[in-house]
Amino acid sequence: MSFMKCLTFGCALCLVTLCFMSPARTLAQTKKLAESAPGDRDQTLQQLLTEVRELRLAVQRATVSNTRFQMLIERVRVQQAHVDALTRQLENIHSQAAEMKAAKPQMEQQIKDAEDLLDRMTELNAHGELESRIKFIKTNLARLAQEDERLHDREAALETELQAAQSKLNGLNGQLDSLMSELKGP
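The structure assignment produced for this chain is given below.
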């Protein structure tokens, strides 16, 4: 906004200077030139006013374009942060799913080993303990399956949300490109 004020002030200063310089020049001229000078002065003033108006419009257009540009950049920045956050969440879910996938065969192997040991064991005290351990591992395996299902649901929802956010970001980038080409002009 200060640029616009400076430009307006500069144009006004040029106009005032021109007005004060014009009468001094006409006094030094002959009477015939002095009679035609007001017509020239009026024409010059009219041209200056037209140019000042054009400059004002150009400054207003530039100010509006600058404001639009800044708003678009901020929206792109916010949307990019959203896309980045969704991407990190999706990566986190992928790593959790991979950990669960790796843990499942280990738990199944522990159950199998414990059941094999249970078949060979004759001591009743240890037999009950081993059955309790097998039951605990099976419960954890069932929880793992439920958690895996929950992660897959969350992963699908995040992928959908990420696609929508990426699409919105692409749209904003398109608007930004369009505005840039407007600013370059023909």
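Interim note for the steering committee: The two ends are 26 Å apart (CA to CA). The CA atoms of residues 101 and 148 lie 8 Å apart.
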